[in-house]
Amino acid sequence: MHIILLSGGSGQRLWPLSNNVRSKQFIKIFKKEDGTYESMVQRVYRQIRAVDADATVTIATSKSQISALCNQLGSDVAISPEPARRDTFPAISLAVSYLVDVQGVDRNEPVVVCPVDPYVNEDYFEALRNLSDLAAAGAANLSVMGIEPTYPSEKYGYVIPRSKDQVAEVETFREKPDAKTAAEYIARGALWNAGVFAFKASYVLDKAHELMNFTDYDDLAAKYETVKKISFDYAVCEKEPKIQVMRFAGQWKDMGTWNTLTEAMEEPAIGNAVLNDTCSNTNVVNELNLPILCMGCRDMVIAASPEGILVSDKNQSSYIKPYVEQMDQQVMFAEKSWGSFTVLDVENESLTILVTLKPGHHMNYHSHEHRDEVWNIISGSGRTIVDGMEQKVHAGDVITMQAGCRHMILADTELRVIEVQLGRDISVHDKKKYALPAGI
Amino acid sequence: MHIILLSGGSGQRLWPLSNNVRSKQFIKIFKKEDGTYESMVQRVYRQIRAVDADATVTIATSKSQISALCNQLGSDVAISPEPARRDTFPAISLAVSYLVDVQGVDRNEPVVVCPVDPYVNEDYFEALRNLSDLAAAGAANLSVMGIEPTYPSEKYGYVIPRSKDQVAEVETFREKPDAKTAAEYIARGALWNAGVFAFKASYVLDKAHELMNFTDYDDLAAKYETVKKISFDYAVCEKEPKIQVMRFAGQWKDMGTWNTLTEAMEEPAIGNAVLNDTCSNTNVVNELNLPILCMGCRDMVIAASPEGILVSDKNQSSYIKPYVEQMDQQVMFAEKSWGSFTVLDVENESLTILVTLKPGHHMNYHSHEHRDEVWNIISGSGRTIVDGMEQKVHAGDVITMQAGCRHMILADTELRVIEVQLGRDISVHDKKKYALPAGI
């Protein structure tokens, strides 16, 4: 099975755990059997492997997510990066083109496209394999998954089938209706559109060449910014007469708001938190190194990260977006391919961060125009390169770097560094990257 | 007027803003006319000065509070430090002895003793002056203040007067009763015991010499740890036949719990916080550099400091004590006479703190046996002395100190320093102090 996972954009709705640089699929909130936690993307990736060890998984995502994906899934994960945001049709076309032109998948093989963030069990991925087999059989050009609805939701699109068979021809798609219309659809056997499609690679490639002028993957990637924004639903589904839908009745939860996300939590609290016995239906996710004490909280979600603290009634939490948009959103925590950083202190002319590098990893070779930096190595061992000079470092060493000098740090073991930045105009944009020094 | 302010012990009830090293009277929560905030002790000190510019104010407190008192009231505040905790009779005796033996107050002058943490207006301090005048007039040996009760509280002791006159003889004192008994007391004209006493200095000194064997202030301070623990109520009030009570009907609030403290807040939030319009009767005190967003919170208090985060129903908040006692209470923030520090990062073998020194101030000259330290100066200018070597420092300078070396830092302007501590056994107890180097 070839799966393209669509890893969507930045999220405000799960603030302070999601933000401009961290999407909800990267929040480690789901408990594994070994007691540690995994994110949605880690969970989905693991579940696919469990159902089909030979599946090829390609993640279609924006450039800004590559670091977090490599951090969470390992650096050999297959990624089809979108050079710009152009909606789902160009994104899926680019990923299918990547599969065929870069990975050498046969044009006649089936491909399944699925969002990265459903909260599901393994039966869902078994259903994806069935959907892939349907696409291979070729009775229709497009096979979609339809979720058996549990209530007349206004949040989802609907697929209306011609029959109540397990696999049926699609009569039509309907965008998010009001509750009354949704109830009528459901009475007619309609299903929720989960955004899951299967098709032969050639089908989407042909559509792509029809609508966009390109030769192969490299060419499409190069001119990606110039292609028209258009959704897969609009460009393909609505115009295709031969579509079939396969029913799925297993668990399928949309983790889009704190209210729904906390339903998937196996315990009231993740992180350092105490809820006294007068709390009820309350969940805490604490990513800070501070204890949270909750007393007498009812129907609440409390989430804390270096970005901020949310204390909200669960129902109210779905109205969070405008409040988060008004906030001054300095990035206080980020996962990078080489590790992570957390902002510890912000002053007018200095910024102090904790940098953690994974063993064997290194940051870019770079310089800053407007700030000096000091590295205080607090644990581990590695090497620094400053203006070409390599030096072994370990806990207790201090390296000072003037503005303009080129520098990087490499971790031999896990390396933790307190980095003090000093200057009048400290900005993430003040960064010049260079080719790695010889020998690295 | 001579006032002795009793500045009581550490507080758990207002966690995370009070803790083992910061008592509730030091939390800056009360808005001044200029828009800044002051603590209870600052408010009381300012109010006394407003009512009686010539009042001498002596603060009876434990050694652990001296730094915070100097930080908040200035270093020329008169403090009578208790060498150990020996309850209120030895504490008041020591402070009166300090007034007479150290400050040269005449033995016949009246002295008023009052707790440092009532939330009151200036009329309360005018009443204290009247109480002082009553003590000077000498119709009774002891004059106490009685608060007109507003409800049959089980939290306070009661003073039962012989008449309903403004000033009356005291018939008896009663410890905290149940609500029914309290109502009976109130029907008989009883008043709340606010812990405010006035007397001639000689009266308490004579009692002190009766009960404790000492010559003068220095001698009592030297043998303080050996004296018996006993309360002023038990040692003096209960045995004294000639006591009068003066009624006080002005505002008097006990700020002992979050529930009562938030009643004194003039606005819903202090610090970086947003409450949406579905919040009601909710207060936020945020001492962190992170935004707090509250949605749909009803009757809640949310308090955040480097020690932790409390999210509590207001009524529930009075049951906080056992939960706080169970917490691992590393001190994350402290006010010192020279400034303050905040813990930024805690690792197995390192601790990173932000140190702020006030202009003209300096820390002790000291060394550590088990840790190296690095000072990253991030703003301001000053001088460091390391093993006797003085050096001018300013933003951008880095000073490294090996375990064992003697060091201190002096601020010429406000100085901010990221201090990185490195070692296996980092502890506040690993500190040896030395006499200041010559010339400091």
Please render the helix and strand layout as text:
The structure is a homodimer of 440-residue chains.
Chain A: E1 2-7, E2 30-31, E3 37-38, H1 40-51, E4 56-62, H2 66-73, E5 78-82, H3 88-102, E6 110-115, E7 118-120, H4 122-137, E8 142-147, E9 158-161, E10 167-174, H5 179-187, E11 191-200, H6 201-211, H7 217-222, H8 232-235, E12 243-248, E13 252-254, H9 258-263, E14 269-270, E15 273-275, E16 283-286, E17 292-295, E18 300-305, E19 308-313, H10 321-325, E20 333-336, E21 339-347, E22 350-357, E23 365-367, E24 372-379, E25 381-386, E26 389-394, E27 398-401, E28 407-411, E29 415-422, E30 432-434
Helix pairs in contact in A: 1-4, 3-6
Polypeptide structure, described:
The structure is a homodimer of 440-residue chains. Chain A is an alpha+beta fold and 440 residues long. The first copy, chain A, contains 10 helices and 30 strands. In chain A, the strands form 8 sheets. A 6-stranded antiparallel sheet of chain A has the order 20-21-22-29-24-27. Chain A has a 5-stranded mixed barrel with strand order 8-11-9-10-12. In chain A, helix 1 (40-51) crosses helix 4 (122-137) and helix 3 packs across helix 6. The model of chain A has no long low-confidence stretch (mean pLDDT 93).
